[in-house]
Structures are given as structure tokens and as C-alpha cells.
């Protein structure tokens, strides 16, 4: 892999901290391509150590995530180091997690982006400034995640369109209209992306594919220029309805909100629901959280 990395001379000795946002992928019609960064964050600090790798976790996932080298931030950091031609260091990692786990808010993508960004920050080189550009980090992160729809907004921030070329993932960030108002409806139950993807058919009708193409294109206009079109833009026929058996309460909430005129979609692979609404509505079984569109990964 080619990159803008200067000649690596080792690792910096000081700790490096990054802040990564939650994300919501698909946004209805834009399956595996559209994504939005949201204002829930993980903050992760890494420092190279000569001792065994140590992972300290606070907040979300503190009782369930691994605390050794199998932690996703560590494996992503190591993968990025190898991709950038560097050795894999032992690290002391401190994770302060604010992104709910397994809820369709990009927690795994946040861990991956944190890992590859920390790798870039820890590398010492003979050049000046940032040693790795975002395009390289995106390709590395998407290799790990398998698709770029979540890692793109996590890395770049805002509203992104992502795609994959023969040489890897690419993405663009577009401005979001000021009156876009995201609300997340967060269920207590967790979901698994593997189960949600397993529910999808191998083929969809041509008419449904054409329907989604038009709505995905409209979503770009609606989010950037005219949010009044978001209800029409976020309609979907190729993935959400197939997941009804996996997350019935999620699909039911999406349908209820949309019948009430609220643009609502399954957030990523679920089970959270993303709505664009000026009001927060009480819903049994879900915690409603007002969020804003966030910037991408930040070095602190």
C-alpha cells in the first residue's frame, strides 16, 4: 500500500489521545454507502510500553470488552502499523467509551478508526506534521471493517458518501443543512451485525433496487440542502423490512414514526432507530437521545 508516510524512525514516547464519534450508516436507502457522524464519543489514549499490553476501559463495554491484545483498538493499531511498514508495539491503552456497544451506532468502527489513528499518531518519522493522510487511514480502516459506510463518517465527520474502488475504499464529506436534527432511539437490547446481515436476501427485485437508487440520491440533496424531503428520501426497500424478524420492535418503531411523518430509519444494522425530528417522543422500551452532527476523529 502506498501512502504519504515519511520514513518511519520509531515510535513517539509520549501518550497519544484520539476522540472518535458514533456513526449511523445506511440512512435508509443508502445501504453500505451513506453515513453520518453523531455526537457520542469514545476517547482513547495509547502509549508505547516495554511491558505487556494493558487495556483499561471506562464506560460502555467496561464489563464485557477484552482487556488484552485481542481488544479491537489494539488489533486495529497493529494492523495499521503493519500496513504502514512499522513494527507492532506493545501499548498501554485507556478507553473512555461513550458509544453504546452493539446498538447500530458504529462502536466497532469507532474502535477501528481509533486504532488506525493512534498508530499514525504514535509513529515517529523524519518528516514534519501528520505522517499519514486520511485517504490512507480510510483504506486501512475499511479493510478491517469490511465496508466503509461507518468508518468514513467516523474518520471524516459529518455526512459521507463512501464507495470501494479496486485500490480500496474512498469517501467524500458533504456539508449538512443547519436544521437537520438527529434523534437516536436506543433500546436496552443489543444487536449483532452478523445476524442482521444474515437476514438479507442474496437478491432483491429490480424495482426495489431502482427505488433505493432514487431515494439514496435524494438523501444527498435532503441532508445538504432541503431536510423537508427527508421523509421521502429515507424510504427503503432493500434491507430494513427483511430484518423485521431479527428486530421486530425496531422495525415497528420505524413504521410508527414514519406514519406520523417523522423521517426514521434503522441505525446501521440496528437495533437503534435514527430519526430526524425537532421533537423527542417518549417511546416504551427505547431511550431517546438528542444528538448533533459531529466532526470526525480528533487528535487531542
TrEMBL record:
Pfam families: GHMP_kinases_N. This is Homoserine kinase. Residues 72-158 form the GHMP kinase N-terminal domain. Gene3D superfamilies: 3.30.230.10, GHMP kinase, C-terminal domain. The keyword tRNA processing does not apply. It comes from Stackebrandtia endophytica. Catalyzes the ATP-dependent phosphorylation of L-homoserine to L-homoserine phosphate. One of its GO terms (biological process) is threonine biosynthetic process. It is found in: Cytoplasm. Coiled coil: none annotated. Keywords: Amino-acid biosynthesis, ATP-binding, Cytoplasm, Kinase, Nucleotide-binding, Threonine biosynthesis, Transferase. PROSITE patterns: GHMP_KINASES_ATP. It catalyses: L-homoserine + ATP = O-phospho-L-homoserine + ADP + H(+). Pathway: Amino-acid biosynthesis; L-threonine biosynthesis; L-threonine from L-aspartate: step 4/5. Its EC number is 2.7.1.39. Its main location: cytoplasm. ATP binds at residues 100-110. The gene is thrB. GO terms for molecular function: ATP binding; homoserine kinase activity.
